Amino acid sequence: MQTVTQDKFKPVVKTGNNERVVRQSLSYWADAWRRLKKNKLAMFGLIVLAALTILALIGPFLQPYDYQTQDYAARNFAPSGSHWFGTDDLGRDQWVRVWWGVRISLFIGIIAAVLDFTIGVLYGGISAYFGGRVDDIMQRIIEIIYGLPFMIIVILLMMVMGPGIFSIIIALAATGWVGMARLVRGQMLSLKEQEYVLAARTLGASSWRIILRHLVPNALGIIIINVTFTVPGAIFAESFLSFIGLGIKPPMASLGSLVSDGVAVMRNFPWRLLCPSIVFSLIMLSFNLLGDGLRDALDPRLRK
Amino acid sequence: MLRFILRRLIYGIITLWVLITLTFILMHNLPGDPFANSQKLSPEAKATLMKTYGLDQPIWVQYGSYLKKIATFDFGVSFNYPTRSVNDVLKQTFPTSAELGMYAIIIAVIIGLTLGIVAALNHNKGWDYVAMLTAIIGVSAPAFVIGPLLSYFIGVKLGWLPPALWKSPEYKILPTITLAFGTLATMARMMRTSMLDVVSQDYVKTAKSKGLSRFAVVVKHTIRNAMLPIITILGVALVNITTGAFVVEQIFAVPGMGKFFVQSISTNDYTMIMGMTIFYAALLIVAIMVTDVMYGVVDPRIRLAKGGK
Questions:
Q1: A170 touching B (Cβ < 8 Å)
Q2: Measuring CA to CA, which residue among A113, A111, A114 is closest to residue A228?
Protein backbone atom coordinates (compact mmCIF):
# COMPACT_ATOMS: atom_id res chain seq x y z
CA MET A 1 0.00 0.00 0.00
CA GLN A 2 1.36 3.30 -1.08
CA THR A 3 1.15 6.30 1.11
CA VAL A 4 0.29 9.61 -0.39
CA THR A 5 2.68 12.15 0.99
CA GLN A 6 2.53 15.88 0.89
CA ASP A 7 5.47 16.25 -1.46
CA LYS A 8 3.62 14.52 -4.29
CA PHE A 9 1.55 17.62 -4.71
CA LYS A 10 2.60 21.01 -5.88
CA PRO A 11 0.53 24.15 -6.09
CA VAL A 12 -0.44 25.50 -9.50
CA VAL A 13 0.99 28.91 -9.90
CA LYS A 14 -1.36 31.34 -11.49
CA THR A 15 0.65 32.99 -14.24
CA GLY A 16 -2.10 35.15 -15.60
CA ASN A 17 -1.90 33.48 -18.94
CA ASN A 18 -3.69 30.19 -18.41
CA GLU A 19 -7.18 31.60 -18.82
CA ARG A 20 -6.31 32.63 -22.34
CA VAL A 21 -8.25 30.88 -25.11
CA VAL A 22 -5.62 29.38 -27.35
CA ARG A 23 -7.60 29.31 -30.53
CA GLN A 24 -8.88 32.60 -31.85
CA SER A 25 -12.62 32.82 -31.59
CA LEU A 26 -14.16 33.04 -35.04
CA SER A 27 -17.06 35.29 -35.83
CA TYR A 28 -19.94 33.83 -37.81
CA TRP A 29 -18.74 35.50 -41.01
CA ALA A 30 -15.09 34.57 -40.57
CA ASP A 31 -16.14 30.98 -40.01
CA ALA A 32 -18.41 31.04 -43.06
CA TRP A 33 -15.61 32.43 -45.21
CA ARG A 34 -13.25 29.73 -43.91
CA ARG A 35 -15.78 27.04 -44.87
CA LEU A 36 -16.39 28.60 -48.26
CA LYS A 37 -12.65 28.67 -49.00
CA LYS A 38 -12.44 24.96 -48.30
CA ASN A 39 -15.22 24.23 -50.81
CA LYS A 40 -13.43 23.69 -54.13
CA LEU A 41 -16.54 23.87 -56.31
CA ALA A 42 -17.69 27.11 -54.72
CA MET A 43 -14.24 28.65 -55.15
CA PHE A 44 -14.26 27.54 -58.77
CA GLY A 45 -17.62 29.28 -59.18
CA LEU A 46 -16.27 32.42 -57.52
CA ILE A 47 -13.19 32.51 -59.76
CA VAL A 48 -15.18 31.92 -62.96
CA LEU A 49 -17.62 34.60 -61.88
CA ALA A 50 -14.80 37.06 -61.22
CA ALA A 51 -13.29 36.26 -64.62
CA LEU A 52 -16.64 36.73 -66.35
CA THR A 53 -17.22 40.02 -64.57
CA ILE A 54 -13.79 41.33 -65.58
CA LEU A 55 -14.31 40.19 -69.17
CA ALA A 56 -17.75 41.80 -69.23
CA LEU A 57 -16.18 45.07 -68.10
CA ILE A 58 -13.14 45.11 -70.40
CA GLY A 59 -14.18 42.60 -73.11
CA PRO A 60 -15.88 45.08 -75.46
CA PHE A 61 -12.78 47.33 -75.38
CA LEU A 62 -10.42 44.54 -76.43
CA GLN A 63 -11.76 44.71 -79.97
CA PRO A 64 -12.07 47.82 -82.13
CA TYR A 65 -15.77 47.20 -82.82
CA ASP A 66 -18.99 48.16 -81.07
CA TYR A 67 -22.16 46.14 -80.63
CA GLN A 68 -24.24 47.80 -83.33
CA THR A 69 -22.05 48.90 -86.25
CA GLN A 70 -22.87 46.76 -89.25
CA ASP A 71 -20.18 45.80 -91.73
CA TYR A 72 -21.52 44.17 -94.85
CA ALA A 73 -18.03 43.24 -95.98
CA ALA A 74 -17.62 41.06 -92.89
CA ARG A 75 -20.82 39.03 -92.75
CA ASN A 76 -20.94 35.57 -91.16
CA PHE A 77 -17.18 35.33 -90.52
CA ALA A 78 -16.01 32.31 -88.58
CA PRO A 79 -14.05 32.95 -85.37
CA SER A 80 -10.58 34.22 -86.28
CA GLY A 81 -7.79 36.53 -85.13
CA SER A 82 -9.71 39.66 -86.01
CA HIS A 83 -13.16 38.46 -84.88
CA TRP A 84 -12.64 36.13 -81.91
CA PHE A 85 -16.22 34.84 -81.82
CA GLY A 86 -16.92 35.50 -85.54
CA THR A 87 -19.52 37.91 -86.90
CA ASP A 88 -23.29 37.73 -87.44
CA ASP A 89 -25.35 38.12 -90.60
CA LEU A 90 -25.10 41.91 -90.37
CA GLY A 91 -21.36 41.84 -89.91
CA ARG A 92 -21.45 42.76 -86.22
CA ASP A 93 -18.67 41.41 -84.03
CA GLN A 94 -19.92 38.52 -81.87
CA TRP A 95 -17.23 38.86 -79.20
CA VAL A 96 -18.32 42.40 -78.40
CA ARG A 97 -22.00 41.46 -78.57
CA VAL A 98 -21.58 38.46 -76.28
CA TRP A 99 -19.85 40.54 -73.61
CA TRP A 100 -22.50 43.21 -73.88
CA GLY A 101 -24.99 40.42 -73.27
CA VAL A 102 -23.06 39.35 -70.18
CA ARG A 103 -23.09 42.96 -68.96
CA ILE A 104 -26.86 43.01 -69.28
CA SER A 105 -27.23 39.63 -67.59
CA LEU A 106 -25.06 40.62 -64.63
CA PHE A 107 -26.73 44.02 -64.34
CA ILE A 108 -30.21 42.45 -64.31
CA GLY A 109 -29.05 39.87 -61.77
CA ILE A 110 -27.66 42.46 -59.37
CA ILE A 111 -30.63 44.83 -59.66
CA ALA A 112 -33.08 41.96 -59.20
CA ALA A 113 -31.23 40.82 -56.10
CA VAL A 114 -31.26 44.32 -54.57
CA LEU A 115 -34.96 44.83 -55.30
CA ASP A 116 -35.87 41.37 -54.07
CA PHE A 117 -33.94 41.91 -50.89
CA THR A 118 -35.42 45.34 -50.18
CA ILE A 119 -39.06 44.58 -50.96
CA GLY A 120 -38.98 41.06 -49.52
CA VAL A 121 -37.32 41.98 -46.23
CA LEU A 122 -39.58 45.01 -45.75
CA TYR A 123 -42.79 43.12 -46.56
CA GLY A 124 -41.85 40.03 -44.58
CA GLY A 125 -40.49 42.08 -41.71
CA ILE A 126 -43.57 44.29 -41.43
CA SER A 127 -45.85 41.28 -41.66
CA ALA A 128 -44.02 39.43 -38.91
CA TYR A 129 -43.48 42.51 -36.71
CA PHE A 130 -47.06 43.73 -36.62
CA GLY A 131 -48.65 40.30 -36.59
CA GLY A 132 -52.38 39.92 -36.02
CA ARG A 133 -54.71 41.45 -38.57
CA VAL A 134 -52.03 43.17 -40.67
CA ASP A 135 -50.13 39.90 -40.93
CA ASP A 136 -53.32 38.07 -41.83
CA ILE A 137 -54.17 40.40 -44.71
CA MET A 138 -50.59 40.57 -45.99
CA GLN A 139 -50.33 36.79 -45.94
CA ARG A 140 -53.62 36.33 -47.84
CA ILE A 141 -52.29 38.70 -50.54
CA ILE A 142 -49.07 36.71 -50.74
CA GLU A 143 -50.92 33.43 -50.98
CA ILE A 144 -52.85 34.69 -54.00
CA ILE A 145 -49.79 36.13 -55.74
CA TYR A 146 -47.89 32.92 -55.01
CA GLY A 147 -50.50 30.92 -56.90
CA LEU A 148 -50.07 32.97 -60.07
CA PRO A 149 -47.76 31.43 -62.66
CA PHE A 150 -44.70 33.70 -62.51
CA MET A 151 -43.54 33.51 -66.12
CA ILE A 152 -47.01 34.22 -67.53
CA ILE A 153 -47.37 37.34 -65.38
CA VAL A 154 -43.92 38.53 -66.44
CA ILE A 155 -44.84 37.96 -70.10
CA LEU A 156 -48.07 39.92 -69.69
CA LEU A 157 -46.26 42.80 -67.98
CA MET A 158 -43.55 42.81 -70.65
CA MET A 159 -46.18 43.05 -73.37
CA VAL A 160 -47.77 46.09 -71.78
CA MET A 161 -44.51 47.90 -71.03
CA GLY A 162 -42.76 46.96 -74.24
CA PRO A 163 -39.27 45.46 -74.56
CA GLY A 164 -36.23 46.90 -72.80
CA ILE A 165 -34.09 46.57 -69.68
CA PHE A 166 -36.28 48.84 -67.60
CA SER A 167 -39.44 46.81 -68.30
CA ILE A 168 -37.67 43.57 -67.45
CA ILE A 169 -36.53 44.98 -64.12
CA ILE A 170 -40.02 46.22 -63.25
CA ALA A 171 -41.60 42.90 -64.27
CA LEU A 172 -39.09 40.89 -62.23
CA ALA A 173 -39.40 43.18 -59.22
CA ALA A 174 -43.19 43.00 -59.31
CA THR A 175 -43.19 39.21 -59.15
CA GLY A 176 -39.90 38.14 -57.58
CA TRP A 177 -40.14 39.36 -54.00
CA VAL A 178 -42.85 36.96 -52.81
CA GLY A 179 -40.52 34.08 -51.98
CA MET A 180 -38.20 36.37 -50.04
CA ALA A 181 -41.08 37.95 -48.10
CA ARG A 182 -42.34 34.52 -47.08
CA LEU A 183 -38.90 33.41 -46.03
CA VAL A 184 -38.16 36.53 -43.98
CA ARG A 185 -41.53 36.37 -42.23
CA GLY A 186 -41.10 32.71 -41.39
CA GLN A 187 -37.59 33.28 -40.11
CA MET A 188 -38.57 36.27 -38.00
CA LEU A 189 -41.52 34.44 -36.50
CA SER A 190 -39.52 31.39 -35.51
CA LEU A 191 -36.50 33.37 -34.32
CA LYS A 192 -38.72 35.51 -32.07
CA GLU A 193 -39.58 32.38 -30.10
CA GLN A 194 -35.99 31.22 -29.63
CA GLU A 195 -34.56 30.85 -26.13
CA TYR A 196 -31.72 33.28 -26.70
CA VAL A 197 -34.21 36.01 -27.51
CA LEU A 198 -36.03 35.20 -24.28
CA ALA A 199 -32.68 35.24 -22.47
CA ALA A 200 -31.77 38.60 -23.96
CA ARG A 201 -35.15 39.98 -22.99
CA THR A 202 -34.76 38.65 -19.45
CA LEU A 203 -31.40 40.38 -19.24
CA GLY A 204 -33.18 43.61 -20.07
CA ALA A 205 -32.12 44.09 -23.68
CA SER A 206 -34.17 46.61 -25.62
CA SER A 207 -36.30 45.63 -28.62
CA TRP A 208 -33.86 47.37 -30.92
CA ARG A 209 -30.93 45.48 -29.50
CA ILE A 210 -32.83 42.21 -29.89
CA ILE A 211 -33.74 42.97 -33.49
CA LEU A 212 -30.31 44.23 -34.52
CA ARG A 213 -28.10 41.89 -32.49
CA HIS A 214 -30.17 38.72 -32.50
CA LEU A 215 -32.90 38.56 -35.13
CA VAL A 216 -31.22 40.19 -38.13
CA PRO A 217 -27.82 38.47 -37.89
CA ASN A 218 -29.48 35.11 -37.44
CA ALA A 219 -31.79 35.55 -40.41
CA LEU A 220 -29.14 37.16 -42.62
CA GLY A 221 -27.44 33.89 -43.58
CA ILE A 222 -30.64 32.42 -44.97
CA ILE A 223 -31.54 35.70 -46.67
CA ILE A 224 -28.15 35.79 -48.41
CA ILE A 225 -28.56 32.18 -49.54
CA ASN A 226 -31.91 33.10 -51.07
CA VAL A 227 -30.42 36.14 -52.81
CA THR A 228 -27.67 34.07 -54.44
CA PHE A 229 -30.36 31.92 -56.03
CA THR A 230 -32.41 34.97 -57.04
CA VAL A 231 -29.56 36.22 -59.22
CA PRO A 232 -29.36 33.24 -61.62
CA GLY A 233 -33.17 33.11 -61.61
CA ALA A 234 -33.39 36.71 -62.81
CA ILE A 235 -30.63 36.17 -65.37
CA PHE A 236 -32.51 33.15 -66.67
CA ALA A 237 -35.79 35.08 -66.84
CA GLU A 238 -34.22 37.90 -68.87
CA SER A 239 -32.64 35.49 -71.35
CA PHE A 240 -35.84 33.48 -71.60
CA LEU A 241 -37.82 36.63 -72.44
CA SER A 242 -35.20 37.79 -74.93
CA PHE A 243 -35.23 34.34 -76.49
CA ILE A 244 -38.96 34.48 -77.19
CA GLY A 245 -38.57 38.05 -78.43
CA LEU A 246 -39.91 40.03 -75.47
CA GLY A 247 -36.75 41.10 -73.69
CA ILE A 248 -33.90 43.30 -74.86
CA LYS A 249 -34.61 44.93 -78.18
CA PRO A 250 -32.10 45.06 -81.05
CA PRO A 251 -29.54 46.34 -81.82
CA MET A 252 -28.61 45.78 -78.16
CA ALA A 253 -27.53 42.20 -77.59
CA SER A 254 -28.69 39.85 -74.86
CA LEU A 255 -27.44 36.31 -74.41
CA GLY A 256 -31.01 35.09 -74.87
CA SER A 257 -31.48 36.86 -78.20
CA LEU A 258 -28.00 35.82 -79.36
CA VAL A 259 -28.84 32.17 -78.67
CA SER A 260 -32.19 32.63 -80.40
CA ASP A 261 -30.48 34.08 -83.51
CA GLY A 262 -27.92 31.30 -83.30
CA VAL A 263 -30.61 28.60 -83.39
CA ALA A 264 -31.85 29.91 -86.73
CA VAL A 265 -28.45 29.66 -88.40
CA MET A 266 -26.81 26.80 -86.51
CA ARG A 267 -26.56 24.50 -89.53
CA ASN A 268 -24.26 26.88 -91.37
CA PHE A 269 -22.70 28.98 -88.63
CA PRO A 270 -22.64 26.83 -85.49
CA TRP A 271 -20.33 29.19 -83.58
CA ARG A 272 -23.14 31.73 -83.43
CA LEU A 273 -25.05 29.26 -81.29
CA LEU A 274 -22.11 27.84 -79.36
CA CYS A 275 -20.38 31.03 -78.15
CA PRO A 276 -23.35 32.67 -76.39
CA SER A 277 -24.65 29.29 -75.13
CA ILE A 278 -21.35 28.41 -73.48
CA VAL A 279 -20.91 31.83 -71.91
CA PHE A 280 -24.50 31.81 -70.63
CA SER A 281 -24.10 28.33 -69.13
CA LEU A 282 -20.87 29.42 -67.43
CA ILE A 283 -22.67 32.35 -65.77
CA MET A 284 -25.48 30.10 -64.52
CA LEU A 285 -23.02 27.40 -63.44
CA SER A 286 -20.81 29.75 -61.45
CA PHE A 287 -23.73 31.39 -59.65
CA ASN A 288 -25.25 28.02 -58.78
CA LEU A 289 -21.97 26.56 -57.52
CA LEU A 290 -21.33 29.67 -55.46
CA GLY A 291 -24.89 29.57 -54.13
CA ASP A 292 -24.55 25.93 -53.12
CA GLY A 293 -21.25 26.69 -51.39
CA LEU A 294 -22.70 29.67 -49.56
CA ARG A 295 -25.63 27.60 -48.39
CA ASP A 296 -23.31 25.00 -46.92
CA ALA A 297 -21.13 27.70 -45.37
CA LEU A 298 -23.89 29.90 -43.94
CA ASP A 299 -26.59 27.48 -42.87
CA PRO A 300 -26.00 26.84 -39.18
CA ARG A 301 -27.92 23.58 -39.33
CA LEU A 302 -25.21 22.08 -41.51
CA ARG A 303 -22.45 23.03 -39.09
CA LYS A 304 -20.64 20.23 -37.36
CA MET B 1 -59.98 17.27 -44.33
CA LEU B 2 -63.00 18.63 -46.21
CA ARG B 3 -62.28 22.02 -44.68
CA PHE B 4 -58.72 21.89 -45.98
CA ILE B 5 -59.80 21.03 -49.52
CA LEU B 6 -62.49 23.71 -49.48
CA ARG B 7 -59.97 26.30 -48.32
CA ARG B 8 -57.61 25.44 -51.16
CA LEU B 9 -60.48 25.54 -53.63
CA ILE B 10 -61.54 29.03 -52.56
CA TYR B 11 -57.96 30.26 -52.86
CA GLY B 12 -57.72 28.72 -56.31
CA ILE B 13 -60.86 30.50 -57.47
CA ILE B 14 -59.74 33.87 -56.06
CA THR B 15 -56.34 33.49 -57.70
CA LEU B 16 -57.96 32.68 -61.01
CA TRP B 17 -60.27 35.69 -60.74
CA VAL B 18 -57.31 37.97 -59.92
CA LEU B 19 -55.51 36.61 -62.96
CA ILE B 20 -58.48 37.09 -65.29
CA THR B 21 -58.96 40.66 -64.08
CA LEU B 22 -55.24 41.39 -64.35
CA THR B 23 -55.12 39.99 -67.87
CA PHE B 24 -58.12 42.10 -68.83
CA ILE B 25 -56.62 45.32 -67.41
CA LEU B 26 -53.18 44.70 -68.90
CA MET B 27 -54.52 43.82 -72.33
CA HIS B 28 -56.52 47.02 -72.40
CA ASN B 29 -53.40 49.03 -71.75
CA LEU B 30 -51.36 47.33 -74.44
CA PRO B 31 -49.42 49.60 -76.73
CA GLY B 32 -50.20 49.07 -80.39
CA ASP B 33 -53.43 48.78 -82.29
CA PRO B 34 -55.02 45.35 -82.79
CA PHE B 35 -55.92 46.38 -86.33
CA ALA B 36 -52.46 47.70 -87.13
CA ASN B 37 -51.62 44.60 -89.14
CA SER B 38 -54.54 45.13 -91.49
CA GLN B 39 -53.61 48.58 -92.77
CA LYS B 40 -55.63 50.92 -94.94
CA LEU B 41 -58.82 50.58 -92.95
CA SER B 42 -61.28 53.41 -93.47
CA PRO B 43 -62.48 55.03 -90.25
CA GLU B 44 -65.95 53.60 -90.85
CA ALA B 45 -64.64 50.09 -91.32
CA LYS B 46 -62.60 50.48 -88.16
CA ALA B 47 -65.65 51.68 -86.24
CA THR B 48 -67.61 48.67 -87.46
CA LEU B 49 -64.82 46.36 -86.38
CA MET B 50 -64.67 48.04 -82.98
CA LYS B 51 -68.39 47.50 -82.69
CA THR B 52 -68.31 43.82 -83.62
CA TYR B 53 -65.65 43.23 -80.98
CA GLY B 54 -67.53 45.36 -78.45
CA LEU B 55 -64.59 47.75 -78.10
CA ASP B 56 -66.85 50.82 -78.28
CA GLN B 57 -68.58 49.90 -75.04
CA PRO B 58 -67.50 51.39 -71.67
CA ILE B 59 -64.81 49.31 -70.00
CA TRP B 60 -67.08 48.03 -67.21
CA VAL B 61 -69.53 46.60 -69.70
CA GLN B 62 -66.66 44.98 -71.57
CA TYR B 63 -65.32 43.53 -68.33
CA GLY B 64 -68.73 42.16 -67.37
CA SER B 65 -69.37 40.50 -70.70
CA TYR B 66 -65.82 39.18 -70.68
CA LEU B 67 -66.29 37.50 -67.30
CA LYS B 68 -69.58 36.03 -68.50
CA LYS B 69 -67.95 34.60 -71.60
CA ILE B 70 -65.04 33.13 -69.65
CA ALA B 71 -67.47 31.45 -67.25
CA THR B 72 -68.99 29.65 -70.22
CA PHE B 73 -65.55 28.78 -71.65
CA ASP B 74 -66.00 31.06 -74.64
CA PHE B 75 -62.72 32.84 -75.36
CA GLY B 76 -63.91 34.58 -78.54
CA VAL B 77 -62.25 34.71 -81.95
CA SER B 78 -58.74 35.67 -82.95
CA PHE B 79 -58.20 39.33 -83.78
CA ASN B 80 -55.91 38.58 -86.67
CA TYR B 81 -57.78 35.64 -88.17
CA PRO B 82 -61.51 36.30 -87.68
CA THR B 83 -62.40 32.82 -88.90
CA ARG B 84 -60.38 31.18 -86.16
CA SER B 85 -61.84 30.93 -82.67
CA VAL B 86 -59.54 30.70 -79.67
CA ASN B 87 -61.30 27.51 -78.64
CA ASP B 88 -60.50 25.91 -82.00
CA VAL B 89 -56.83 26.82 -81.66
CA LEU B 90 -56.75 25.42 -78.13
CA LYS B 91 -58.42 22.24 -79.33
CA GLN B 92 -55.89 21.89 -82.14
CA THR B 93 -52.73 22.73 -80.26
CA PHE B 94 -53.39 21.56 -76.72
CA PRO B 95 -53.24 17.81 -77.41
CA THR B 96 -49.75 18.13 -78.91
CA SER B 97 -48.51 20.22 -75.98
CA ALA B 98 -50.18 17.89 -73.49
CA GLU B 99 -48.53 14.90 -75.14
CA LEU B 100 -45.10 16.54 -75.06
CA GLY B 101 -45.59 17.71 -71.48
CA MET B 102 -46.81 14.30 -70.37
CA TYR B 103 -43.78 12.51 -71.82
CA ALA B 104 -41.50 15.09 -70.27
CA ILE B 105 -42.97 14.82 -66.79
CA ILE B 106 -42.99 11.01 -66.88
CA ILE B 107 -39.35 10.90 -67.98
CA ALA B 108 -38.38 13.54 -65.43
CA VAL B 109 -40.07 11.76 -62.53
CA ILE B 110 -38.90 8.23 -63.36
CA ILE B 111 -35.28 9.03 -64.25
CA GLY B 112 -34.98 11.87 -61.76
CA LEU B 113 -36.20 9.82 -58.79
CA THR B 114 -34.15 6.77 -59.79
CA LEU B 115 -31.03 8.90 -60.10
CA GLY B 116 -31.70 10.53 -56.74
CA ILE B 117 -32.27 7.20 -55.01
CA VAL B 118 -29.19 5.57 -56.53
CA ALA B 119 -27.12 8.62 -55.64
CA ALA B 120 -28.23 8.61 -52.01
CA LEU B 121 -27.64 4.86 -51.64
CA ASN B 122 -24.13 5.32 -53.00
CA HIS B 123 -23.43 8.51 -51.09
CA ASN B 124 -20.09 10.04 -52.09
CA LYS B 125 -19.38 7.34 -54.65
CA GLY B 126 -19.50 7.21 -58.46
CA TRP B 127 -23.26 7.35 -58.97
CA ASP B 128 -23.59 10.17 -56.50
CA TYR B 129 -21.27 12.31 -58.60
CA VAL B 130 -23.16 11.41 -61.79
CA ALA B 131 -26.42 12.58 -60.19
CA MET B 132 -24.87 15.75 -58.83
CA LEU B 133 -23.30 16.55 -62.19
CA THR B 134 -26.66 16.06 -63.90
CA ALA B 135 -28.29 18.35 -61.35
CA ILE B 136 -25.67 21.07 -61.86
CA ILE B 137 -25.93 20.88 -65.66
CA GLY B 138 -29.71 20.89 -65.35
CA VAL B 139 -29.77 24.22 -63.52
CA SER B 140 -26.96 25.79 -65.55
CA ALA B 141 -28.19 24.95 -69.04
CA PRO B 142 -31.91 25.74 -69.39
CA ALA B 143 -34.04 24.40 -72.23
CA PHE B 144 -33.20 27.20 -74.63
CA VAL B 145 -29.51 26.32 -74.35
CA ILE B 146 -29.70 22.55 -74.16
CA GLY B 147 -32.37 22.24 -76.88
CA PRO B 148 -30.41 23.91 -79.68
CA LEU B 149 -27.24 22.08 -78.63
CA LEU B 150 -28.98 18.67 -78.73
CA SER B 151 -30.66 19.55 -82.00
CA TYR B 152 -27.31 20.62 -83.48
CA PHE B 153 -25.06 17.80 -82.24
CA ILE B 154 -27.43 14.81 -82.23
CA GLY B 155 -29.74 16.01 -84.97
CA VAL B 156 -27.52 17.83 -87.45
CA LYS B 157 -23.95 16.66 -86.79
CA LEU B 158 -24.45 13.01 -85.89
CA GLY B 159 -27.76 12.63 -87.65
CA TRP B 160 -29.01 10.05 -85.12
CA LEU B 161 -32.37 11.70 -84.58
CA PRO B 162 -34.38 14.27 -86.56
CA PRO B 163 -33.33 17.77 -85.41
CA ALA B 164 -36.86 19.24 -85.51
CA LEU B 165 -40.57 18.72 -86.27
CA TRP B 166 -43.16 16.49 -84.60
CA LYS B 167 -44.12 13.38 -86.53
CA SER B 168 -43.26 9.76 -85.80
CA PRO B 169 -41.95 8.68 -82.38
CA GLU B 170 -38.28 9.30 -83.17
CA TYR B 171 -39.11 12.99 -83.72
CA LYS B 172 -40.42 13.19 -80.18
CA ILE B 173 -37.27 12.08 -78.39
CA LEU B 174 -35.19 15.26 -78.50
CA PRO B 175 -37.98 17.70 -77.56
CA THR B 176 -38.98 15.43 -74.68
CA ILE B 177 -35.42 15.16 -73.34
CA THR B 178 -34.92 18.91 -73.65
CA LEU B 179 -38.15 19.69 -71.83
CA ALA B 180 -37.61 17.06 -69.15
CA PHE B 181 -33.98 17.83 -68.40
CA GLY B 182 -34.30 20.74 -65.99
CA THR B 183 -37.07 19.08 -63.99
CA LEU B 184 -35.25 15.75 -64.04
CA ALA B 185 -32.23 17.43 -62.49
CA THR B 186 -34.30 19.14 -59.78
CA MET B 187 -36.07 15.86 -58.99
CA ALA B 188 -32.79 13.98 -58.71
CA ARG B 189 -31.36 16.61 -56.40
CA MET B 190 -34.45 16.82 -54.18
CA MET B 191 -34.79 13.06 -53.95
CA ARG B 192 -31.13 12.67 -53.02
CA THR B 193 -31.33 15.27 -50.23
CA SER B 194 -34.60 13.84 -49.00
CA MET B 195 -33.24 10.27 -48.99
CA LEU B 196 -30.11 11.28 -47.10
CA ASP B 197 -32.32 13.05 -44.60
CA VAL B 198 -34.57 10.04 -44.05
CA VAL B 199 -31.71 7.52 -43.85
CA SER B 200 -30.51 9.11 -40.61
CA GLN B 201 -33.98 9.02 -39.00
CA ASP B 202 -34.62 6.85 -35.96
CA TYR B 203 -37.31 4.74 -37.58
CA VAL B 204 -34.88 3.62 -40.25
CA LYS B 205 -32.43 2.62 -37.54
CA THR B 206 -35.26 0.75 -35.81
CA ALA B 207 -36.18 -1.02 -39.02
CA LYS B 208 -32.56 -2.06 -39.51
CA SER B 209 -32.14 -3.28 -35.94
CA LYS B 210 -35.35 -5.29 -36.21
CA GLY B 211 -33.40 -7.29 -38.79
CA LEU B 212 -35.40 -6.31 -41.85
CA SER B 213 -33.76 -6.98 -45.18
CA ARG B 214 -31.93 -4.11 -46.86
CA PHE B 215 -34.58 -4.16 -49.58
CA ALA B 216 -37.43 -3.74 -47.10
CA VAL B 217 -35.61 -0.96 -45.26
CA VAL B 218 -34.83 0.93 -48.43
CA VAL B 219 -38.14 0.48 -50.25
CA LYS B 220 -40.69 0.46 -47.46
CA HIS B 221 -39.13 2.77 -44.93
CA THR B 222 -36.75 5.08 -46.72
CA ILE B 223 -38.08 5.67 -50.24
CA ARG B 224 -41.69 5.88 -49.14
CA ASN B 225 -40.98 8.64 -46.67
CA ALA B 226 -38.44 10.38 -48.87
CA MET B 227 -41.07 10.70 -51.63
CA LEU B 228 -43.18 13.09 -49.52
CA PRO B 229 -41.38 16.35 -50.33
CA ILE B 230 -41.29 15.38 -54.01
CA ILE B 231 -45.07 15.79 -54.19
CA THR B 232 -44.71 19.47 -53.22
CA ILE B 233 -42.42 20.18 -56.16
CA LEU B 234 -44.65 18.36 -58.65
CA GLY B 235 -46.77 21.51 -59.00
CA VAL B 236 -43.68 23.66 -59.60
CA ALA B 237 -42.36 21.04 -62.02
CA LEU B 238 -45.56 21.22 -64.02
CA VAL B 239 -45.31 25.02 -64.18
CA ASN B 240 -41.69 24.80 -65.36
CA ILE B 241 -42.52 22.23 -67.99
CA THR B 242 -45.43 24.29 -69.28
CA THR B 243 -43.42 27.51 -69.60
CA GLY B 244 -40.41 25.55 -70.84
CA ALA B 245 -42.59 24.29 -73.67
CA PHE B 246 -42.76 27.88 -75.03
CA VAL B 247 -39.14 27.64 -76.10
CA VAL B 248 -38.93 23.90 -76.73
CA GLU B 249 -41.83 24.01 -79.18
CA GLN B 250 -40.20 27.01 -80.83
CA ILE B 251 -36.79 25.31 -81.16
CA PHE B 252 -38.10 21.99 -82.48
CA ALA B 253 -40.99 23.46 -84.49
CA VAL B 254 -43.57 21.47 -82.52
CA PRO B 255 -47.09 22.63 -83.47
CA GLY B 256 -48.18 23.06 -79.86
CA MET B 257 -49.79 25.70 -77.70
CA GLY B 258 -46.50 27.28 -76.60
CA LYS B 259 -45.41 27.99 -80.13
CA PHE B 260 -48.78 29.51 -80.91
CA PHE B 261 -48.69 31.59 -77.73
CA VAL B 262 -45.31 33.10 -78.62
CA GLN B 263 -46.57 33.78 -82.14
CA SER B 264 -49.67 35.53 -80.83
CA ILE B 265 -47.49 37.72 -78.62
CA SER B 266 -45.42 38.92 -81.56
CA THR B 267 -48.53 39.69 -83.64
CA ASN B 268 -50.45 41.47 -80.83
CA ASP B 269 -53.37 39.06 -81.15
CA TYR B 270 -55.27 40.31 -78.07
CA THR B 271 -58.06 37.77 -77.76
CA MET B 272 -55.72 34.91 -78.52
CA ILE B 273 -53.23 35.99 -75.84
CA MET B 274 -55.97 36.59 -73.28
CA GLY B 275 -57.64 33.25 -73.95
CA MET B 276 -54.39 31.33 -73.88
CA THR B 277 -53.09 33.09 -70.78
CA ILE B 278 -56.26 32.29 -68.89
CA PHE B 279 -56.22 28.71 -70.12
CA TYR B 280 -52.58 28.28 -69.09
CA ALA B 281 -53.16 29.92 -65.74
CA ALA B 282 -56.28 27.90 -64.99
CA LEU B 283 -54.39 24.72 -65.85
CA LEU B 284 -51.48 25.61 -63.59
CA ILE B 285 -53.58 26.90 -60.72
CA VAL B 286 -55.61 23.68 -60.74
CA ALA B 287 -52.40 21.64 -60.92
CA ILE B 288 -50.90 23.46 -57.94
CA MET B 289 -54.16 23.09 -56.04
CA VAL B 290 -54.31 19.36 -56.71
CA THR B 291 -50.72 18.79 -55.61
CA ASP B 292 -51.39 20.84 -52.47
CA VAL B 293 -54.42 18.76 -51.59
CA MET B 294 -52.54 15.56 -52.47
CA TYR B 295 -49.77 16.55 -50.11
CA GLY B 296 -52.30 17.22 -47.40
CA VAL B 297 -53.84 13.78 -47.95
CA VAL B 298 -50.48 12.01 -47.86
CA ASP B 299 -48.93 13.93 -44.98
CA PRO B 300 -51.34 14.74 -42.12
CA ARG B 301 -48.84 17.14 -40.54
CA ILE B 302 -49.33 19.62 -43.40
CA ARG B 303 -53.09 19.42 -43.16
CA LEU B 304 -53.01 20.26 -39.48
CA ALA B 305 -50.51 23.07 -39.85
CA LYS B 306 -52.09 24.80 -42.83
CA GLY B 307 -55.82 24.36 -42.62
CA GLY B 308 -56.41 23.28 -39.06
CA LYS B 309 -57.49 26.61 -37.68
A1: no
A2: A113
